[in-house]
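User: What would this chain look like folded?
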Amino acid sequence: MICPKCKNENPDDALYCAICSEVFRKKAQQAPVEPIEPPATPGKPTSSRFAKLATVLQFKKTLICCALVLAYLIIPAKLLRSAGVPVPVKAGEFTVKGLDGKRINLSDFAGRPVLLYVWMTNCPRSIDNLGMISALYQKYRNSPLCFLPVTLNPDFKTTVAPFVASHGIEYPVYNGHGYLTRQFWPAGIPGVFLIDRQGYLHQEFSPDKNDQAKLESYIDRYIADRTPESYFVDMGEPQPDLTDARDGYFSILKQAQQLLEDENYAGLDVMADELRATKARFANGDWKLVAYYEGVSSIGTNIGRKEEEWERRLPLLKKWKEVRPASITAAVAYGGALVNYAWYARGSGYAAETPEEDMALFKQRLLQAKQALEEADKLPGKCPMLYDQLMTAALGEGAGADEQGEIFRKAVAFAPDYYHYYEEFGQALWPIWYGAPGDVEQFAENMAKATKDAEGMGIYTRIMVQYAMGTTLFGENGEFFFKRTNASWPLMRQGFLDIDKRYPDSRVNLNEFAWLACLAGDKTTAKTIFARLGGDYDKKVWSGLTYARWMTWAQKEQKGTFFERIKNLL
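Assistant: Here's the prediction, encoded as structure tokens.
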């Protein structure tokens, strides 16, 4: 064997000859040396070559991955989706408006999958799809899916309402013209957008009447994809709030409604007299008389049938008033119905957005309502709801502070523990109505002082809760309430505690307490109230804000500042 060092013949089987081996041994004793690699076998790379090749390949792989990620970020999402690459994009917020004038926002359905169907009444393909969309609605109406059919008709009120009525459409229809953001403008009409529970937009395509199975497969996937937060989100169509469920709100409403349908006017008077005499209340402190009058003076929200319902309801109330002319209940019920009929003509949108003819009809009906209520005020009997309706009419009429104040003073003198009075007058002081910034807060403080002996700070809290929940001035979910008002959380917190002493079984009050504590950043209070509530949330209070996320926030330990943490460690 040839020695690779000296090239001499090596008689032994050793790699190096005896002389070279001795030299290496002596050098090794003097200083460590790197081992000499054996000669490479022909046709096979050495380990160092392998290492170099692996490094090069790794670099190329890294370079390719970086290029793909960069392309994914730079290429428009729509282009990638059209090429079949699944690209989830965060769905931006939008607001649409229903036939009843009510506004809803995408954020109201946080934690639920959303099917947004964009269509037009004059589109042949949209008309062909009516059967398919109706079938989807019937199948998924009691599922977690939020179903949003939105039209782009520019003349929504004059075109869509008759179309809905004539085609017997049962699902709610919303106006997207001028409301829907550019992100949700479909490439073709009709268009479908599917949004998952986390608020990411996935599928987007233009369906036809044969795509029902395809849509169902997508919907089923998003319904099954549940996040922990979604377990606390309402899993069906809008349900009554906790007051309804626990205190029989709808039971009273339906009972009064049935008595009216049966024209049992004597029975209506007996029922109202008992509710007034006993001052029967729900668990949150509100009078049950409110549910009674809603049953007889309101018609609900059946889209496409409202005018027909009013034409049936008003003659029944008028007949009751004629049959029993001394009945304060009949007079107030008729006047209250006229107030609601007037607001039906106007809608719930801003005055600037209301057509002139609707506003004129609103004023005309409101005048009739006011006259009817003033006649009721002359009767010997009295009813708390009379002043409630008078204040609602005065609000729409644009009555000045003096007239509003006069009605309010009469009201609280008659029934100082009828909480709606304080909330109604407080609403008239909102900046979007007839007040200036700070007016509501000052009014709430004054009323709290006047009722402190009986209510503690409860009235202050009730007025401010109505302010926080009744307007979008403070963000869609009230998140800016404490930043944009002079509301005092310490006073509100004390008011909630005072209310809780009087009404300890109200889950509605506790939900409102937890919600305001979260908005105020009061983790300690929120954590305590969440512990009492468990999973018993009120969707009316937590609209757009998932109960679970706030509960998680409240339960997280407060780390404190750097110095506070060091102090705790020491």
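Residues 31-46, 226-246, 565-570 have pLDDT under 50 and may be disordered. If you want, I can go into more detail on any region.
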